[in-house]
TrEMBL record:
Entries under InterPro entries matching the protein: ACR1-12, ACT-like_dom_sf, ACT_dom
Gene Ontology MF term list: amino acid binding
Designated name of the protein: ACT domain-containing protein ACR
SUPFAM superfamilies, alphabetized: ACT-like
Database matches in Pfam families: ACT
CDD domains recorded: ACT_ACR_1
Keyword Repeat: yes
Residue ranges, compositional bias (Low complexity): 436-457
Function: Binds amino acids.
ACT domain segment(s): 131-211, 362-439
Region (Disordered): 432-463
Keyword annotations of the record: Repeat
Organism for this UniProt entry: Dorcoceras hygrometricum
Length: 487
Protein backbone atom coordinates (compact mmCIF):
# COMPACT_ATOMS: atom_id res chain seq x y z
CA UNK A 1 0.00 0.00 0.00
CA UNK A 2 1.37 3.42 -0.97
CA UNK A 3 1.32 6.02 1.77
CA UNK A 4 1.23 9.63 0.64
CA UNK A 5 1.99 12.54 2.93
CA UNK A 6 0.80 16.04 2.18
CA UNK A 7 2.02 19.15 4.00
CA UNK A 8 -0.50 21.07 6.05
CA UNK A 9 -1.14 24.60 4.79
CA UNK A 10 -2.98 26.98 7.06
CA UNK A 11 -6.08 28.36 5.25
CA UNK A 12 -5.20 31.83 6.54
CA UNK A 13 -1.94 31.76 4.56
CA UNK A 14 -3.83 32.21 1.28
CA UNK A 15 -4.93 35.70 2.28
CA UNK A 16 -1.64 36.68 3.97
CA UNK A 17 -0.36 38.84 1.09
CA UNK A 18 -3.75 40.51 0.83
CA UNK A 19 -3.71 41.32 4.55
CA UNK A 20 -0.17 42.68 4.35
CA UNK A 21 -0.93 44.75 1.24
CA UNK A 22 -4.66 45.49 1.23
CA UNK A 23 -6.19 47.20 -1.81
CA UNK A 24 -5.79 50.97 -1.90
CA UNK A 25 -8.68 52.90 -3.40
CA UNK A 26 -8.65 56.53 -4.50
CA UNK A 27 -11.98 58.08 -5.48
CA UNK A 28 -11.47 61.30 -7.45
CA UNK A 29 -14.26 63.72 -8.34
CA UNK A 30 -11.97 66.64 -9.26
CA UNK A 31 -9.97 65.51 -12.28
CA UNK A 32 -12.85 65.18 -14.76
CA UNK A 33 -15.99 67.35 -14.90
CA UNK A 34 -18.30 64.60 -16.16
CA UNK A 35 -17.29 61.40 -14.33
CA UNK A 36 -15.91 59.96 -11.11
CA UNK A 37 -12.46 58.40 -11.27
CA UNK A 38 -11.87 55.25 -9.19
CA UNK A 39 -8.23 54.12 -8.94
CA UNK A 40 -7.33 50.80 -7.34
CA UNK A 41 -3.91 49.37 -6.41
CA UNK A 42 -4.10 45.80 -5.17
CA UNK A 43 -2.33 42.50 -4.85
CA UNK A 44 -3.11 40.60 -8.04
CA UNK A 45 -5.10 37.68 -6.66
CA UNK A 46 -7.25 35.51 -8.91
CA UNK A 47 -10.72 36.97 -9.44
CA UNK A 48 -9.87 40.39 -7.98
CA UNK A 49 -10.72 42.22 -11.21
CA UNK A 50 -14.10 40.51 -11.41
CA UNK A 51 -14.85 41.41 -7.78
CA UNK A 52 -14.14 45.09 -8.40
CA UNK A 53 -16.27 45.25 -11.53
CA UNK A 54 -19.04 43.34 -9.73
CA UNK A 55 -19.13 45.91 -6.91
CA UNK A 56 -19.59 48.73 -9.44
CA UNK A 57 -22.13 47.01 -11.70
CA UNK A 58 -24.27 45.80 -8.78
CA UNK A 59 -24.78 49.48 -7.95
CA UNK A 60 -25.99 50.18 -11.51
CA UNK A 61 -22.97 52.40 -12.15
CA UNK A 62 -21.91 52.96 -15.75
CA UNK A 63 -18.24 52.23 -16.54
CA UNK A 64 -17.53 54.44 -19.55
CA UNK A 65 -13.77 53.88 -19.63
CA UNK A 66 -11.29 51.63 -17.87
CA UNK A 67 -7.58 50.85 -17.86
CA UNK A 68 -6.38 47.60 -16.34
CA UNK A 69 -2.77 46.59 -15.80
CA UNK A 70 -1.16 43.84 -13.73
CA UNK A 71 2.60 43.54 -13.37
CA UNK A 72 3.66 40.36 -11.63
CA UNK A 73 1.81 40.19 -8.34
CA UNK A 74 0.35 43.72 -8.44
CA UNK A 75 -2.81 45.06 -10.06
CA UNK A 76 -3.53 48.70 -11.00
CA UNK A 77 -6.98 49.60 -12.34
CA UNK A 78 -8.69 52.84 -13.26
CA UNK A 79 -12.45 53.14 -13.80
CA UNK A 80 -14.38 56.16 -15.15
CA UNK A 81 -17.89 55.83 -13.75
CA UNK A 82 -21.19 57.72 -13.66
CA UNK A 83 -24.65 56.96 -12.37
CA UNK A 84 -27.52 55.93 -14.65
CA UNK A 85 -28.30 59.58 -15.43
CA UNK A 86 -24.71 60.28 -16.52
CA UNK A 87 -23.79 62.25 -13.38
CA UNK A 88 -20.81 61.96 -11.08
CA UNK A 89 -21.11 59.73 -8.04
CA UNK A 90 -21.11 62.20 -5.15
CA UNK A 91 -23.22 60.67 -2.40
CA UNK A 92 -20.85 60.04 0.50
CA UNK A 93 -22.48 56.84 1.70
CA UNK A 94 -22.28 55.36 -1.80
CA UNK A 95 -18.62 56.28 -2.15
CA UNK A 96 -17.91 54.65 1.21
CA UNK A 97 -19.74 51.51 0.11
CA UNK A 98 -17.66 51.34 -3.09
CA UNK A 99 -14.42 51.62 -1.13
CA UNK A 100 -15.47 49.07 1.47
CA UNK A 101 -16.64 46.63 -1.20
CA UNK A 102 -13.32 46.83 -3.05
CA UNK A 103 -10.96 47.10 -0.08
CA UNK A 104 -12.14 44.23 2.05
CA UNK A 105 -11.02 40.66 1.48
CA UNK A 106 -13.17 38.22 -0.44
CA UNK A 107 -14.74 36.92 2.75
CA UNK A 108 -15.30 40.35 4.31
CA UNK A 109 -16.56 41.72 1.01
CA UNK A 110 -19.49 39.35 1.25
CA UNK A 111 -20.26 40.82 4.63
CA UNK A 112 -20.55 44.29 3.12
CA UNK A 113 -22.91 43.01 0.45
CA UNK A 114 -25.01 41.32 3.11
CA UNK A 115 -25.57 44.70 4.78
CA UNK A 116 -26.61 46.29 1.52
CA UNK A 117 -28.80 43.35 0.57
CA UNK A 118 -27.95 43.43 -3.12
CA UNK A 119 -26.84 40.31 -5.00
CA UNK A 120 -25.91 38.08 -2.09
CA UNK A 121 -28.45 37.70 0.67
CA UNK A 122 -27.34 36.94 4.21
CA UNK A 123 -26.95 33.34 5.24
CA UNK A 124 -30.14 33.34 7.24
CA UNK A 125 -32.11 34.52 4.21
CA UNK A 126 -30.43 32.02 1.90
CA UNK A 127 -31.21 29.19 4.29
CA UNK A 128 -34.91 29.86 3.85
CA UNK A 129 -34.95 29.60 0.06
CA UNK A 130 -34.61 26.94 -2.57
CA UNK A 131 -32.97 27.79 -5.88
CA UNK A 132 -34.65 26.75 -9.12
CA UNK A 133 -32.50 26.74 -12.27
CA UNK A 134 -34.07 26.01 -15.63
CA UNK A 135 -32.75 26.06 -19.19
CA UNK A 136 -34.46 25.08 -22.41
CA UNK A 137 -35.93 26.22 -25.70
CA UNK A 138 -37.64 29.61 -25.47
CA UNK A 139 -41.35 29.24 -26.17
CA UNK A 140 -44.24 31.58 -25.26
CA UNK A 141 -46.00 30.73 -22.00
CA UNK A 142 -43.21 28.67 -20.41
CA UNK A 143 -42.46 31.16 -17.62
CA UNK A 144 -46.17 31.71 -17.03
CA UNK A 145 -46.93 28.02 -16.58
CA UNK A 146 -43.91 27.40 -14.34
CA UNK A 147 -44.82 30.27 -12.01
CA UNK A 148 -48.46 29.11 -11.96
CA UNK A 149 -47.40 25.61 -10.88
CA UNK A 150 -45.21 27.04 -8.11
CA UNK A 151 -48.09 29.19 -6.85
CA UNK A 152 -50.52 26.26 -6.95
CA UNK A 153 -48.08 24.13 -4.94
CA UNK A 154 -47.77 26.74 -2.20
CA UNK A 155 -44.39 28.19 -3.20
CA UNK A 156 -43.60 31.89 -2.94
CA UNK A 157 -41.20 33.45 -5.48
CA UNK A 158 -39.03 35.98 -3.66
CA UNK A 159 -36.96 36.96 -6.69
CA UNK A 160 -36.26 35.72 -10.19
CA UNK A 161 -34.28 36.55 -13.30
CA UNK A 162 -34.70 35.16 -16.83
CA UNK A 163 -32.77 35.71 -20.06
CA UNK A 164 -33.42 34.59 -23.62
CA UNK A 165 -30.86 34.30 -26.41
CA UNK A 166 -30.65 32.39 -29.69
CA UNK A 167 -34.03 30.69 -29.12
CA UNK A 168 -32.97 29.51 -25.65
CA UNK A 169 -34.09 30.57 -22.20
CA UNK A 170 -32.47 30.35 -18.78
CA UNK A 171 -33.90 31.42 -15.45
CA UNK A 172 -32.95 31.37 -11.78
CA UNK A 173 -35.80 31.57 -9.28
CA UNK A 174 -35.57 31.71 -5.48
CA UNK A 175 -38.58 30.08 -3.82
CA UNK A 176 -39.71 29.30 -0.30
CA UNK A 177 -42.51 27.31 1.28
CA UNK A 178 -45.55 29.43 2.18
CA UNK A 179 -46.79 26.96 4.80
CA UNK A 180 -43.63 27.15 6.91
CA UNK A 181 -42.35 30.54 5.72
CA UNK A 182 -39.00 29.00 4.95
CA UNK A 183 -37.07 26.37 3.03
CA UNK A 184 -38.80 23.30 1.63
CA UNK A 185 -37.45 20.56 3.90
CA UNK A 186 -39.73 17.61 3.13
CA UNK A 187 -37.89 15.50 0.49
CA UNK A 188 -41.15 14.02 -0.79
CA UNK A 189 -42.66 17.49 -1.27
CA UNK A 190 -39.47 18.70 -2.94
CA UNK A 191 -39.49 15.75 -5.35
CA UNK A 192 -43.18 16.37 -6.13
CA UNK A 193 -42.58 20.06 -6.92
CA UNK A 194 -39.63 19.22 -9.17
CA UNK A 195 -41.62 16.51 -10.97
CA UNK A 196 -44.49 18.93 -11.66
CA UNK A 197 -42.09 21.55 -13.01
CA UNK A 198 -40.37 18.96 -15.18
CA UNK A 199 -43.76 18.04 -16.66
CA UNK A 200 -44.32 21.70 -17.60
CA UNK A 201 -40.89 22.08 -19.18
CA UNK A 202 -41.20 18.77 -21.03
CA UNK A 203 -44.57 19.81 -22.46
CA UNK A 204 -42.89 22.81 -24.09
CA UNK A 205 -40.14 20.72 -25.73
CA UNK A 206 -39.87 18.06 -28.38
CA UNK A 207 -38.27 14.75 -27.49
CA UNK A 208 -34.66 15.48 -28.49
CA UNK A 209 -34.54 19.16 -27.54
CA UNK A 210 -32.13 19.97 -24.69
CA UNK A 211 -33.51 21.21 -21.38
CA UNK A 212 -32.61 21.00 -17.73
CA UNK A 213 -34.26 21.78 -14.41
CA UNK A 214 -32.84 21.66 -10.91
CA UNK A 215 -34.43 22.59 -7.58
CA UNK A 216 -31.91 22.55 -4.75
CA UNK A 217 -30.74 24.36 -1.61
CA UNK A 218 -28.33 27.26 -2.17
CA UNK A 219 -24.64 26.41 -2.30
CA UNK A 220 -22.39 27.39 0.60
CA UNK A 221 -20.53 29.80 -1.71
CA UNK A 222 -22.98 31.18 -4.18
CA UNK A 223 -21.91 32.30 -7.64
CA UNK A 224 -23.08 35.75 -8.60
CA UNK A 225 -26.54 35.24 -10.08
CA UNK A 226 -25.91 36.92 -13.43
CA UNK A 227 -22.60 35.16 -13.86
CA UNK A 228 -24.42 31.90 -13.14
CA UNK A 229 -26.89 32.75 -15.92
CA UNK A 230 -23.97 33.16 -18.33
CA UNK A 231 -22.65 29.77 -17.27
CA UNK A 232 -25.86 27.81 -17.65
CA UNK A 233 -26.71 29.45 -20.99
CA UNK A 234 -23.25 28.63 -22.31
CA UNK A 235 -23.65 25.05 -21.05
CA UNK A 236 -26.96 24.94 -22.92
CA UNK A 237 -25.09 25.80 -26.14
CA UNK A 238 -26.55 29.21 -26.97
CA UNK A 239 -23.09 30.43 -28.03
CA UNK A 240 -22.89 27.74 -30.72
CA UNK A 241 -25.48 29.64 -32.76
CA UNK A 242 -23.94 33.09 -32.34
CA UNK A 243 -23.88 34.20 -35.98
CA UNK A 244 -21.33 36.36 -37.75
CA UNK A 245 -21.99 39.77 -39.23
CA UNK A 246 -22.94 39.94 -42.87
CA UNK A 247 -20.11 40.77 -45.19
CA UNK A 248 -17.29 39.20 -43.17
CA UNK A 249 -14.73 37.03 -44.93
CA UNK A 250 -13.68 33.60 -43.79
CA UNK A 251 -10.61 35.08 -42.10
CA UNK A 252 -12.68 37.87 -40.53
CA UNK A 253 -15.83 36.04 -39.57
CA UNK A 254 -17.11 38.83 -37.33
CA UNK A 255 -16.32 41.71 -39.65
CA UNK A 256 -13.88 43.46 -37.28
CA UNK A 257 -11.50 44.44 -40.07
CA UNK A 258 -14.38 45.86 -42.14
CA UNK A 259 -15.42 48.05 -39.22
CA UNK A 260 -11.83 49.19 -38.55
CA UNK A 261 -11.48 50.23 -42.20
CA UNK A 262 -14.66 52.27 -41.98
CA UNK A 263 -16.81 49.90 -44.01
CA UNK A 264 -18.95 48.59 -41.15
CA UNK A 265 -19.78 51.63 -39.08
CA UNK A 266 -23.51 51.04 -39.31
CA UNK A 267 -23.33 47.51 -37.94
CA UNK A 268 -24.34 47.23 -34.29
CA UNK A 269 -23.48 43.56 -33.88
CA UNK A 270 -20.49 42.31 -31.92
CA UNK A 271 -17.15 42.09 -33.73
CA UNK A 272 -14.21 40.16 -32.28
CA UNK A 273 -10.63 39.89 -33.48
CA UNK A 274 -7.81 37.84 -31.94
CA UNK A 275 -4.11 38.44 -32.57
CA UNK A 276 -1.09 36.86 -30.89
CA UNK A 277 1.77 38.97 -29.55
CA UNK A 278 4.26 36.13 -29.25
CA UNK A 279 7.19 38.36 -28.32
CA UNK A 280 5.16 39.58 -25.31
CA UNK A 281 3.55 36.24 -24.54
CA UNK A 282 -0.03 37.56 -24.80
CA UNK A 283 -3.06 37.13 -27.02
CA UNK A 284 -4.74 40.42 -27.93
CA UNK A 285 -8.53 40.08 -28.01
CA UNK A 286 -10.39 43.11 -29.44
CA UNK A 287 -14.16 43.39 -29.01
CA UNK A 288 -16.33 46.04 -30.67
CA UNK A 289 -20.05 46.12 -29.82
CA UNK A 290 -22.95 48.38 -28.93
CA UNK A 291 -22.24 50.11 -25.63
CA UNK A 292 -24.57 49.32 -22.73
CA UNK A 293 -24.54 48.92 -18.95
CA UNK A 294 -22.73 45.89 -17.48
CA UNK A 295 -20.91 45.17 -20.74
CA UNK A 296 -17.50 44.89 -19.02
CA UNK A 297 -18.93 42.51 -16.43
CA UNK A 298 -20.45 40.26 -19.11
CA UNK A 299 -17.22 40.13 -21.12
CA UNK A 300 -15.14 39.26 -18.05
CA UNK A 301 -17.61 36.49 -17.17
CA UNK A 302 -16.96 34.84 -20.53
CA UNK A 303 -13.18 35.15 -20.26
CA UNK A 304 -13.05 33.85 -16.70
CA UNK A 305 -15.33 30.90 -17.46
CA UNK A 306 -12.96 30.01 -20.31
CA UNK A 307 -10.06 30.10 -17.80
CA UNK A 308 -8.32 33.15 -19.29
CA UNK A 309 -6.47 35.68 -17.13
CA UNK A 310 -6.55 39.35 -18.14
CA UNK A 311 -3.14 40.98 -17.67
CA UNK A 312 -3.81 44.32 -19.36
CA UNK A 313 -6.92 45.90 -20.84
CA UNK A 314 -8.32 49.16 -22.18
CA UNK A 315 -12.05 49.85 -22.43
CA UNK A 316 -13.53 52.95 -24.03
CA UNK A 317 -16.55 54.09 -26.01
CA UNK A 318 -17.13 56.10 -29.18
CA UNK A 319 -20.70 57.35 -29.16
CA UNK A 320 -22.92 54.29 -28.83
CA UNK A 321 -20.08 51.87 -29.63
CA UNK A 322 -17.82 50.25 -27.01
CA UNK A 323 -14.25 49.20 -27.77
CA UNK A 324 -12.57 46.62 -25.51
CA UNK A 325 -9.01 45.35 -25.84
CA UNK A 326 -7.63 42.57 -23.63
CA UNK A 327 -4.10 41.23 -23.36
CA UNK A 328 -4.54 37.80 -21.85
CA UNK A 329 -3.18 34.33 -21.35
CA UNK A 330 -4.78 31.04 -20.49
CA UNK A 331 -4.64 30.05 -16.85
CA UNK A 332 -1.91 27.54 -17.78
CA UNK A 333 0.20 30.37 -19.25
CA UNK A 334 -0.46 29.63 -22.92
CA UNK A 335 -1.81 31.91 -25.63
CA UNK A 336 -4.56 31.34 -28.20
CA UNK A 337 -2.76 29.45 -30.96
CA UNK A 338 -5.19 27.00 -32.56
CA UNK A 339 -8.05 28.16 -34.77
CA UNK A 340 -10.43 26.03 -32.72
CA UNK A 341 -9.53 27.91 -29.55
CA UNK A 342 -9.92 31.26 -31.25
CA UNK A 343 -13.33 30.43 -32.66
CA UNK A 344 -14.53 29.18 -29.28
CA UNK A 345 -13.45 32.41 -27.58
CA UNK A 346 -15.12 34.46 -30.32
CA UNK A 347 -18.41 32.58 -29.96
CA UNK A 348 -18.38 32.92 -26.16
CA UNK A 349 -17.65 36.64 -26.32
CA UNK A 350 -20.33 37.33 -28.91
CA UNK A 351 -22.89 35.42 -26.87
CA UNK A 352 -21.88 37.12 -23.61
CA UNK A 353 -22.22 40.61 -25.08
CA UNK A 354 -25.56 39.89 -26.75
CA UNK A 355 -27.44 37.89 -24.08
CA UNK A 356 -28.34 40.99 -22.10
CA UNK A 357 -29.19 43.06 -25.19
CA UNK A 358 -32.89 42.30 -24.89
CA UNK A 359 -35.41 43.12 -27.57
CA UNK A 360 -38.89 44.41 -26.99
CA UNK A 361 -40.77 46.96 -24.95
CA UNK A 362 -39.58 47.58 -21.41
CA UNK A 363 -42.13 47.54 -18.59
CA UNK A 364 -41.16 48.36 -15.01
CA UNK A 365 -43.65 47.34 -12.36
CA UNK A 366 -43.97 48.28 -8.72
CA UNK A 367 -46.84 46.75 -6.77
CA UNK A 368 -47.72 45.10 -3.47
CA UNK A 369 -45.81 41.87 -2.84
CA UNK A 370 -48.10 38.86 -2.70
CA UNK A 371 -48.05 35.13 -3.31
CA UNK A 372 -48.58 34.28 -6.98
CA UNK A 373 -47.61 37.75 -8.24
CA UNK A 374 -45.25 36.49 -10.93
CA UNK A 375 -47.85 33.95 -12.01
CA UNK A 376 -50.47 36.70 -12.36
CA UNK A 377 -48.17 39.08 -14.27
CA UNK A 378 -46.93 36.46 -16.73
CA UNK A 379 -50.47 35.17 -17.24
CA UNK A 380 -51.63 38.69 -18.12
CA UNK A 381 -48.80 39.01 -20.64
CA UNK A 382 -49.65 35.65 -22.22
CA UNK A 383 -53.40 36.35 -22.42
CA UNK A 384 -52.66 39.61 -24.21
CA UNK A 385 -50.38 38.04 -26.80
CA UNK A 386 -47.07 39.17 -25.29
CA UNK A 387 -43.96 37.04 -24.83
CA UNK A 388 -41.16 37.80 -22.36
CA UNK A 389 -37.65 38.19 -23.74
CA UNK A 390 -36.04 39.12 -20.43
CA UNK A 391 -37.26 39.57 -16.85
CA UNK A 392 -36.04 40.40 -13.37
CA UNK A 393 -38.13 40.69 -10.23
CA UNK A 394 -37.28 41.30 -6.60
CA UNK A 395 -38.94 42.22 -3.33
CA UNK A 396 -38.24 44.75 -0.60
CA UNK A 397 -40.53 44.60 2.40
CA UNK A 398 -44.13 44.64 1.23
CA UNK A 399 -43.25 45.90 -2.26
CA UNK A 400 -42.36 43.91 -5.35
CA UNK A 401 -40.38 45.36 -8.24
CA UNK A 402 -40.09 43.89 -11.71
CA UNK A 403 -38.52 44.75 -15.06
CA UNK A 404 -39.91 42.92 -18.09
CA UNK A 405 -38.97 43.14 -21.75
CA UNK A 406 -41.94 42.00 -23.81
CA UNK A 407 -42.83 41.74 -27.48
CA UNK A 408 -45.87 40.76 -29.46
CA UNK A 409 -45.85 37.05 -30.32
CA UNK A 410 -46.52 37.97 -33.95
CA UNK A 411 -43.49 40.34 -33.93
CA UNK A 412 -45.73 43.37 -34.42
CA UNK A 413 -45.39 46.49 -32.29
CA UNK A 414 -47.21 46.31 -28.97
CA UNK A 415 -50.35 48.40 -29.33
CA UNK A 416 -51.24 51.16 -26.83
CA UNK A 417 -54.56 49.42 -26.20
CA UNK A 418 -52.75 46.22 -25.16
CA UNK A 419 -50.50 48.21 -22.84
CA UNK A 420 -53.49 49.89 -21.21
CA UNK A 421 -55.18 46.52 -20.63
CA UNK A 422 -51.98 45.13 -19.12
CA UNK A 423 -51.61 48.19 -16.90
CA UNK A 424 -55.15 47.94 -15.57
CA UNK A 425 -54.93 44.21 -14.88
CA UNK A 426 -51.54 44.32 -13.15
CA UNK A 427 -52.34 47.33 -10.98
CA UNK A 428 -49.79 49.19 -8.87
CA UNK A 429 -47.37 51.38 -10.82
CA UNK A 430 -46.37 50.47 -14.36
CA UNK A 431 -43.68 52.45 -16.20
CA UNK A 432 -43.47 51.94 -19.96
CA UNK A 433 -40.22 52.68 -21.77
CA UNK A 434 -41.35 53.67 -25.26
CA UNK A 435 -37.80 53.52 -26.61
CA UNK A 436 -36.95 50.44 -28.62
CA UNK A 437 -34.12 48.36 -27.19
CA UNK A 438 -32.31 48.71 -30.50
CA UNK A 439 -32.51 52.48 -30.50
CA UNK A 440 -29.35 54.52 -30.19
CA UNK A 441 -30.73 57.38 -28.18
CA UNK A 442 -29.68 57.25 -24.54
CA UNK A 443 -32.75 59.14 -23.37
CA UNK A 444 -35.73 57.04 -22.36
CA UNK A 445 -39.30 58.18 -22.68
CA UNK A 446 -41.28 56.85 -19.77
CA UNK A 447 -44.99 56.89 -19.06
CA UNK A 448 -46.27 56.22 -15.56
CA UNK A 449 -49.73 54.84 -15.07
CA UNK A 450 -51.18 54.20 -11.62
CA UNK A 451 -53.38 51.17 -11.09
CA UNK A 452 -55.64 53.23 -8.85
CA UNK A 453 -56.27 55.78 -11.55
CA UNK A 454 -59.72 55.67 -13.07
CA UNK A 455 -58.73 57.33 -16.33
CA UNK A 456 -56.41 55.90 -18.93
CA UNK A 457 -55.33 59.40 -19.83
CA UNK A 458 -53.72 59.99 -16.45
CA UNK A 459 -50.17 59.56 -17.68
CA UNK A 460 -47.18 61.22 -16.02
CA UNK A 461 -43.48 61.26 -16.69
CA UNK A 462 -41.81 58.89 -14.22
CA UNK A 463 -38.27 58.02 -13.18
CA UNK A 464 -36.59 54.75 -14.03
CA UNK A 465 -36.83 51.97 -11.44
CA UNK A 466 -33.86 49.66 -10.91
CA UNK A 467 -32.61 47.27 -8.29
CA UNK A 468 -29.42 49.26 -7.91
CA UNK A 469 -31.45 52.38 -7.15
CA UNK A 470 -33.22 50.49 -4.36
CA UNK A 471 -29.82 49.84 -2.84
CA UNK A 472 -28.90 53.51 -3.15
CA UNK A 473 -31.96 54.41 -1.12
CA UNK A 474 -30.70 52.28 1.76
CA UNK A 475 -27.10 53.50 1.74
CA UNK A 476 -27.86 56.76 3.57
CA UNK A 477 -29.18 54.71 6.48
CA UNK A 478 -26.04 52.57 6.46
CA UNK A 479 -23.47 55.36 6.05
CA UNK A 480 -22.56 55.46 9.74
CA UNK A 481 -21.17 51.93 9.45
CA UNK A 482 -18.38 52.93 7.05
CA UNK A 483 -15.01 54.55 7.57
CA UNK A 484 -14.07 57.86 5.88
CA UNK A 485 -12.35 57.70 2.50
CA UNK A 486 -8.61 58.25 2.61
CA UNK A 487 -7.03 59.13 -0.69
Amino acid sequence: MDITYKPYIDPEFESLIERINPPRVCIDNDTFPDCTLIKVDSANKQGMLMEMVQVLTDLDLIISKSYISSDGGWLMDVFHVTDQQGNKVTEQSLLCYIQEGICTSRRASKGVKHIAGQEEANQEGLAGRMVLEMTGIDRPGLMSEMSAVLAALGCHISDAVAWTHNRRVACIINVDDISVHGKITDPCRLAHIQAQLENVVEAHHYKDEPRSLRLSPPAARQTHRERRLHQIMAAEGDCEESCSCCGGTNDDIYGYEMWRKGQGTRCNRTHVQIENCKNMGYSLVSVRSRDRPKLLFDTLCALMDLQYVVSHAAISSEGSIAIQEYYLRHKNGGILESEGEKRKVIRYLVAATERRASHGLRLEICTKNRTGLLSDVTRIFRENGLSITRAEIGTRGEKAFGTFYVKDVSDDDVSPRTLEIVRQEIGGTVIVDNKSSSGASPEASFSRAKGSSSSSSGIEEGPRLSFGSLLWAQLERLSNNFRPIKS
